[in-house]
């Protein structure tokens, strides 16, 4: 049995979503520091639950996006497209997740390292 | 007092999340039909500890750290603090830690999905994915515990009156 064709759609959708969130999390982190409108947006998301703090909004946004994107990429038409187009199997998905997470960590760590020690 | 309990609680459940992840890692290395249920339960437990750490630590971060401890480290003439010798404790360690944390949450959620939806004993590549995710949680947990200690030291070194 081929792992590519048998790949569980929810598994693919949420794995792909995790890879995207790893990068989005880093971009939102840098964006909040560099663009005040982005930070204000995160604060406004936080205020939806009664806590007007950018970190609360950031967390809500990442977790909700992870769930929403997970279900979006689990849709048969979308997951079939990506799985076939990029020959996704579990190993390739894992590789994508690892690369995204390392890049995401690198962006956040590198950005704050520069601000703290080189800025 | 509440401040101290929050930070101790955060560190404790964070440590429990790391320890549970280590246990889960061992179970995954020896995955067989006999321990499938245990792997599922441990995945739930890892999620519970990480979410507890998120909520308790988040409460401390928003209501205590952001209103006082941060200014002890950075310095504030209004509050009467000259600033910590370790200003980098906030500038690098807090700032990075608070944003790395979200990755742990989504990784743990994905781990839970794999534990309950896949036949990871038979499917080696799914088991590898779970193992890598848990390894990230173990290493990340240890790193973030250490960074929390650096933050605490940053506050301690800032408790110097102007």
Computed structural class of chain A = mainly alpha
Number of discrete helical segments of chain B: 4
Q: Please tell me how large the radius of gyration of chain B is.
A: 19 Å
Number of domains of chain B: 1
From the 3D coordinates, which CATH architecture of chain B would you assign? Up-down Bundle
What does it look like?
- The complex is a heterodimer of chains A (119) and B (162).
- Chain A is mainly α.
- Chain A has 6 helices and no strands.
- In chain A, helix 2 crosses helix 3, helix 2 packs antiparallel against helix 4 and helix 2 runs parallel beside helix 6.
- The longest helix of chain A has 29 residues.
- Chain A is flat and about 45 Å long.
- Chain A starts with a helix and ends with a helix.
- Chain B has 162 residues and is mainly alpha-helical.
- Chain B has a single domain, classed as Four Helix Bundle (Hemerythrin (Met), subunit A) (Up-down Bundle).
- In chain B, helix 1 packs antiparallel against helix 2.
- At the A-B interface, helix 2, helix 4 and helix 6 of A face helix 2, helix 3 and helix 4 of B.
Q: What key attributes describe this structure?
A:
heterodimer; A: 119 residues; mainly alpha; flat; disordered N terminus; B: 162 residues; Four Helix Bundle (Hemerythrin (Met), subunit A); 80% helix; 0% strand
